[in-house]
């Protein structure tokens, strides 16, 4: 095979290769052939997407008892609902388990939130947590009673 054929992606002696045009093919190690933007239909945010942190926990709603029967859901949507049905999972855990980019998982989870199939619980920001010294004073006051 010539260097030009290798760069063009052609296999030697392939009868289906049109003359003069490269044949693009993928092997088992090429990875998924569906691009992430195809899964999200080119969107980078969902319509009602709020701030979905990496540690935001996704919990299924009771309406999501059988996500496979909804024909409008993609296989990725169904997989997210099924994974969260076993145990609530964070956005980062879902991205790792599905082997998808975090941005794609955020869009997909946003779609599920809009469809009321899951809800997202967000962590409490550190600024809203009570001060440790205040908690110690309360404990000391209770001990004094």
Describe the protein in words.
Strands 2-1-3 form a three-stranded antiparallel sheet. Residues 1-10 have low confidence and may be disordered. Helices cover 39% and strands 7% of the residues. It has 145 residues and is mainly alpha-helical. Helix 4 (91-98) crosses helix 5. It is built from six helices and three strands, in the order H-H-E-H-E-H-H-E-H.
Summed up, what is this model?
With 145 residues, the protein is mainly α.
List keywords for this structure.
disordered N terminus; 145 residues; mainly alpha; single chain
Q: Helices, strands, pairings?
A:
Blueprint: H1 3-8, H2 36-39, E1 57-60, H3 75-86, E2 89-90, H4 91-98, H5 102-114, E3 118-121, H6 132-144
Antiparallel strand pairs: 1-2, 1-3
Helix pairs in contact: 3-5, 4-5
Low-confidence stretches: 1-10
Span between termini? 88 Å
**What composes the largest sheet?**
3 strands, antiparallel
Strand sequence of the main sheet, in spatial order?
2-1-3
Beta-strand fraction estimate: 5-15%
Summed up, the helix count is: 6
Helix content: 25-40%
Please provide the ordered H/E string of secondary-structure elements: HHEHEHHEH
Number of strands: 3
Overall shape: elongated
| Global Rg | 24 Å
pLDDT averaged over residues: 75
Structural class: mainly alpha
